[in-house]
Amino acid sequence: MTKIFNDPADFAGDMLSGFARAFPGFVQRVPGGVVRATQAAPGKVAVVTGGGSGHYPAFAGWVGTGLADAAVVGDVFSSPSTQQVVAVATAADAGAGVVLSYGNYAGDVLNFEAARAQLTESGIPVRSVVVSDDLASAPRDERSLRRGTAGDLVVVKIAGAAAEAGYDLEGVVRVAERTNAGTVSLGVAFEGPTPPGSPGPLFTMNEGRMGVGLGIHGEPGVSEEPLLGARELAGLLTGRVLAERPESARRATVLLNGMGATKYEELFVLWNEVVPALEAEGVEIVEPEVGELITSLDMAGLSLTITWLDDELEALWGAPAQSPAYRKGPAEAAPLTPRPVPEIVERAIPESSEASRHVAKLVHAAFETAANALAEAEPELGELDSVAGNGDHGRVMARGARAAATAAGRAVEAGAGTATTLLFAADAWSDRAGGSSGALWGAGLRAAARVLADTDPPPNAVQAACRSALDAVTTYGNARVGDKTVVDAFLPFTESLEADLAAELPLGPAWVNASAVAARAAEATASLSPRLGRARPLAARSLGHRDPGAVSFAVVVTAIAEHVA
């Protein structure tokens, strides 16, 4: 259990500040993460990695020469926000472009890709490499759906070595993608992690059982199997990773990774069995790693990763690297060069009409009510999310809504109209919540703001704003009805609202009706099997349980009905 913290909500920020103070020769704190404290060569490609906290030594521990130039760090088991990625990548850019490397999780993909678009618009060339090495999360012919696990380290190490050697942007992407394509991992879990402030672990295993195919955000295995001895466990792990061995592949690096509570001595016992099992299959092991490489707080478990190497990848894997948590080859002294902290520019407050300012006050009140409702629903939403996820949905939704309410209040006090108030709220929600829910709510609120105005509200403003927000969420999240997501409640809500208003029902009753439709649709998600996001690999567990995103949407629209009326 995680025992040392102040406010659990501040755990990630407190941890990152302490980390930067512990390693000032390696890293410098910037908003959203850390950057290298040493001078990179002018015109060097910047490799930026990242994800949620709770995984140390990933991701901040990999920042240094020959590795990553920066790491974006979100809250515990939650992807960083788009704004954080933009800020960190901007600080890391040395003029030759940025490679973003991160694990294949819905929230990370949404936020890093949105950041990539923003950075590209600002004139910084950016490419993404999405790590997808977890063979348990999707079959081989659906490689693009696989999660990222310990393969993150191999991809970042090889990409970082290539950038240090002077490869251009396309060259770094080329070797990183080839590394990812040749990497597979499989993990097993013995007991789940306990995030700060949580009363117990996210999952427990039955006596004498283990979960096979764990996720690094505290997800249990995709199957439950008998607990094995070291030799049998080595056979299970090596057998499954070698099943995807490329034809004629011979040389490989191998990682045996502890998830946080499995001790080094246990890993060495298992490694003693893994090596002969691989050698018996003709594998030549190149510079392996055994230890805690990417963890999940205090999860008891481990993973085995194999990356098949050619001559170029082998040379890059063996190249020197120096970071707080990963060091290879001779240390090279480099001057400390503090980087300028990216300036955070507040949105301007444009002119607005009296009518729009009046609606903005209602919007602020609606956010306050929504934040209170989500805080009350937080335990229920967290319990729903823990069925096939990491149990943080209630926490991040309550946190995002509270930040949005505060930001909307500031905007109203400054004389903002409706659209600007919504934009302030959207930025705050997505930045404070992080993850996929933060990204989707931010996208939806921004789309609604574009329909509304800081002058007098246009005709049919509410239904047009709802439809625009729905379109943004479905496009941005690539979700459709039946995928078991927020869309399963959002679409019926919007269609009901549009139908009632077209029949000339007043807005207040129409909103109440639509809220009831959303609540029933959220209840009906219990019969669905998830096809997207973190819950997809654990679809069987999700059956019979409502989708937390759909339920939280229903909570929000029901709570704010009084303000809409």
TrEMBL record:
It comes from the Bacteria. GO terms for molecular function: glycerone kinase activity. SUPFAM superfamilies: DAK1/DegV-like, DhaL-like. GO terms for cellular component: cytosol. InterPro entries: DhaK_dom (IPR004006), DhaL_dom (IPR004007), DhaL_dom_sf (IPR036117), Dihydroxyacetone_Kinase (IPR050861). Keywords: Kinase, Transferase. Pfam families: Dak1, Dak2. This is Dihydroxyacetone kinase. The lineage of its organism: Bacteria, Bacillati, Actinomycetota, Actinomycetes, Pseudonocardiales.
